Amino acid sequence: MKKKFVFIIIIGIFVFILDSCFSTEHYVIKNIDVFGVKLLNNTEEDLNKHFEIIEDTLKNRLGFLIFGKTEYIYGHLPSLFHECYATTVPKQLDNSIDINSLELILDKDIIFEGNIIKKNTSLWNHPLLKEYQWYYEYPYEYPRLGYSVVIGFNENFYDKVSLSSANYRITISCTTTDSYKLSKTINLFIIL
Q: Contact, 191 vs 165, CB < 8 A?
Protein backbone atom coordinates (compact mmCIF):
# COMPACT_ATOMS: atom_id res chain seq x y z
CA MET A 1 0.00 0.00 0.00
CA LYS A 2 2.84 2.34 0.92
CA LYS A 3 4.59 1.67 -2.42
CA LYS A 4 1.40 2.49 -4.37
CA PHE A 5 1.02 5.76 -2.46
CA VAL A 6 4.66 6.78 -3.18
CA PHE A 7 4.25 5.74 -6.82
CA ILE A 8 1.07 7.89 -7.18
CA ILE A 9 2.85 10.87 -5.55
CA ILE A 10 5.82 10.53 -7.95
CA ILE A 11 3.48 10.28 -10.99
CA GLY A 12 1.56 13.35 -9.73
CA ILE A 13 4.76 15.40 -9.34
CA PHE A 14 5.96 14.29 -12.79
CA VAL A 15 2.64 15.26 -14.43
CA PHE A 16 2.65 18.63 -12.60
CA ILE A 17 6.18 19.39 -13.86
CA LEU A 18 5.32 18.37 -17.44
CA ASP A 19 2.12 20.43 -17.38
CA SER A 20 3.98 23.50 -16.12
CA CYS A 21 6.57 23.08 -18.88
CA PHE A 22 4.17 22.61 -21.78
CA SER A 23 1.01 24.54 -20.91
CA THR A 24 0.02 27.30 -23.34
CA GLU A 25 0.30 30.92 -22.20
CA HIS A 26 -2.72 32.98 -23.26
CA TYR A 27 -2.56 36.70 -24.08
CA VAL A 28 -5.18 39.30 -25.04
CA ILE A 29 -5.00 42.81 -26.47
CA LYS A 30 -5.99 45.18 -23.65
CA ASN A 31 -4.72 48.53 -24.97
CA ILE A 32 -3.39 50.13 -28.16
CA ASP A 33 -0.68 52.54 -29.15
CA VAL A 34 -1.06 54.55 -32.35
CA PHE A 35 1.71 56.06 -34.48
CA GLY A 36 1.84 57.88 -37.78
CA VAL A 37 3.77 55.81 -40.33
CA LYS A 38 5.43 56.23 -43.69
CA LEU A 39 5.46 53.20 -45.98
CA LEU A 40 9.05 52.74 -47.16
CA ASN A 41 8.37 50.29 -50.01
CA ASN A 42 5.28 51.88 -51.48
CA THR A 43 3.83 49.06 -53.56
CA GLU A 44 0.65 47.34 -52.44
CA GLU A 45 1.77 44.05 -54.02
CA ASP A 46 4.87 43.88 -51.81
CA LEU A 47 4.12 41.38 -49.03
CA ASN A 48 7.18 42.41 -47.01
CA LYS A 49 6.00 45.83 -45.84
CA HIS A 50 8.43 48.17 -44.11
CA PHE A 51 7.28 51.21 -42.19
CA GLU A 52 8.96 54.15 -40.54
CA ILE A 53 7.27 55.58 -37.46
CA ILE A 54 6.57 59.31 -37.78
CA GLU A 55 6.26 61.30 -34.56
CA ASP A 56 5.88 64.86 -35.81
CA THR A 57 4.89 65.41 -39.47
CA LEU A 58 3.03 63.08 -41.84
CA LYS A 59 3.80 64.01 -45.45
CA ASN A 60 1.99 62.98 -48.64
CA ARG A 61 0.07 60.02 -47.16
CA LEU A 62 -2.14 59.19 -44.20
CA GLY A 63 -0.80 56.04 -42.58
CA PHE A 64 -1.22 54.84 -39.02
CA LEU A 65 0.17 51.91 -37.07
CA ILE A 66 -2.19 50.47 -34.49
CA PHE A 67 -0.10 48.44 -32.07
CA GLY A 68 -2.07 46.05 -29.87
CA LYS A 69 -0.56 45.93 -26.39
CA THR A 70 -1.02 42.45 -24.98
CA GLU A 71 -1.38 41.22 -21.44
CA TYR A 72 -0.82 37.75 -20.13
CA ILE A 73 -4.08 36.32 -18.80
CA TYR A 74 -3.44 32.66 -17.91
CA GLY A 75 -1.76 29.44 -18.83
CA HIS A 76 1.53 28.74 -17.15
CA LEU A 77 0.90 26.99 -13.85
CA PRO A 78 3.02 27.85 -10.84
CA SER A 79 5.43 25.09 -10.10
CA LEU A 80 8.56 24.19 -8.24
CA PHE A 81 10.49 25.18 -11.35
CA HIS A 82 10.24 28.75 -12.63
CA GLU A 83 11.55 27.86 -16.07
CA CYS A 84 11.92 24.75 -18.12
CA TYR A 85 15.13 25.32 -19.99
CA ALA A 86 14.70 22.41 -22.37
CA THR A 87 11.34 23.58 -23.69
CA THR A 88 9.58 26.60 -25.12
CA VAL A 89 6.19 27.41 -23.68
CA PRO A 90 3.64 27.85 -26.48
CA LYS A 91 1.89 31.23 -26.62
CA GLN A 92 -1.54 32.05 -27.99
CA LEU A 93 -3.19 35.40 -28.74
CA ASP A 94 -6.88 34.98 -27.90
CA ASN A 95 -8.18 38.13 -29.63
CA SER A 96 -7.27 40.60 -32.38
CA ILE A 97 -8.43 43.98 -33.64
CA ASP A 98 -11.69 43.83 -35.57
CA ILE A 99 -10.90 45.79 -38.77
CA ASN A 100 -14.61 46.45 -39.38
CA SER A 101 -14.88 48.30 -36.06
CA LEU A 102 -12.10 50.81 -36.79
CA GLU A 103 -12.72 54.54 -36.61
CA LEU A 104 -10.24 57.17 -37.83
CA ILE A 105 -11.28 60.65 -36.70
CA LEU A 106 -9.63 64.00 -37.45
CA ASP A 107 -10.43 67.20 -35.57
CA LYS A 108 -10.73 69.28 -38.78
CA ASP A 109 -12.97 69.19 -41.85
CA ILE A 110 -11.66 67.66 -45.08
CA ILE A 111 -12.90 67.97 -48.64
CA PHE A 112 -13.31 64.85 -50.74
CA GLU A 113 -14.52 65.16 -54.36
CA GLY A 114 -16.09 68.52 -53.48
CA ASN A 115 -17.95 67.10 -50.45
CA ILE A 116 -17.14 68.45 -47.01
CA ILE A 117 -16.57 65.70 -44.46
CA LYS A 118 -17.08 67.32 -41.08
CA LYS A 119 -14.54 67.10 -38.27
CA ASN A 120 -15.01 64.30 -35.77
CA THR A 121 -16.50 62.04 -38.47
CA SER A 122 -14.96 58.60 -38.90
CA LEU A 123 -13.04 58.68 -42.17
CA TRP A 124 -12.55 54.93 -42.06
CA ASN A 125 -16.29 54.21 -42.06
CA HIS A 126 -17.42 57.10 -44.26
CA PRO A 127 -19.43 55.82 -47.28
CA LEU A 128 -17.49 58.04 -49.74
CA LEU A 129 -14.12 56.74 -48.50
CA LYS A 130 -14.73 53.04 -47.81
CA GLU A 131 -13.55 51.89 -51.25
CA TYR A 132 -10.20 53.67 -50.73
CA GLN A 133 -9.28 51.87 -47.50
CA TRP A 134 -5.99 50.06 -47.29
CA TYR A 135 -4.71 47.99 -44.37
CA TYR A 136 -1.99 45.49 -43.60
CA GLU A 137 -2.26 43.16 -40.58
CA TYR A 138 0.62 41.38 -39.01
CA PRO A 139 0.69 39.23 -35.88
CA TYR A 140 4.09 38.62 -34.33
CA GLU A 141 5.67 36.53 -31.62
CA TYR A 142 8.88 38.35 -30.67
CA PRO A 143 9.76 39.87 -28.23
CA ARG A 144 6.32 38.87 -26.97
CA LEU A 145 3.11 37.78 -28.58
CA GLY A 146 1.23 40.66 -30.22
CA TYR A 147 -0.74 42.08 -33.09
CA SER A 148 -0.48 45.22 -35.20
CA VAL A 149 -2.26 46.68 -38.20
CA VAL A 150 -1.27 49.55 -40.47
CA ILE A 151 -4.16 51.49 -42.00
CA GLY A 152 -4.31 54.12 -44.69
CA PHE A 153 -5.85 54.94 -48.03
CA ASN A 154 -4.88 53.82 -51.55
CA GLU A 155 -3.35 56.06 -54.23
CA ASN A 156 -6.68 57.10 -55.79
CA PHE A 157 -7.78 58.71 -52.50
CA TYR A 158 -5.02 61.34 -52.63
CA ASP A 159 -6.10 62.59 -56.08
CA LYS A 160 -9.55 63.44 -54.67
CA VAL A 161 -8.90 64.75 -51.14
CA SER A 162 -8.02 68.19 -49.83
CA LEU A 163 -6.68 68.72 -46.32
CA SER A 164 -5.24 71.94 -44.99
CA SER A 165 -1.67 71.63 -43.75
CA ALA A 166 -2.05 71.92 -39.99
CA ASN A 167 -1.71 70.21 -36.64
CA TYR A 168 -4.35 67.51 -36.31
CA ARG A 169 -5.68 65.63 -33.31
CA ILE A 170 -6.19 62.09 -34.62
CA THR A 171 -8.29 59.58 -32.71
CA ILE A 172 -8.30 55.92 -33.62
CA SER A 173 -10.85 53.66 -31.95
CA CYS A 174 -11.52 49.98 -32.41
CA THR A 175 -13.01 46.92 -30.82
CA THR A 176 -11.24 43.62 -30.33
CA THR A 177 -12.77 40.37 -31.52
CA ASP A 178 -13.88 39.73 -27.92
CA SER A 179 -15.73 43.11 -27.80
CA TYR A 180 -13.19 45.11 -25.76
CA LYS A 181 -13.31 48.82 -26.82
CA LEU A 182 -10.00 50.65 -27.30
CA SER A 183 -9.14 54.22 -28.27
CA LYS A 184 -6.03 56.38 -28.59
CA THR A 185 -5.49 60.03 -29.60
CA ILE A 186 -2.27 61.44 -31.08
CA ASN A 187 -1.25 64.83 -32.47
CA LEU A 188 0.54 65.14 -35.82
CA PHE A 189 1.18 67.87 -38.36
CA ILE A 190 -0.20 66.67 -41.72
CA ILE A 191 0.94 67.90 -45.14
CA LEU A 192 -0.71 66.33 -48.20
A: yes
**Mean pLDDT over residues 151-179, rounded?**
93
- Count of all residues that appear for the chain in the document: 192
**Residue 131's pLDDT is what?**
93
Domain segments of the chain as ranges:
30-73+94-191
Q: Model's pTM, two decimal places?
A: 0.78
**CATH of region 30-73+94-191, choose from 2.60.40, 3.40.50, 3.30.200, 1.10.10:** 2.60.40
Q: Does 180 have pLDDT greater than 80?
A: yes
Structural contact between residues 60 and 74, judged by C-beta atoms closer than 8 angstroms: no
Phi, psi of 81 (to 5 degrees): -110, 125
Edge-to-edge strands, sheet with 103-106: 57-59, 181-191, 166-175, 103-106
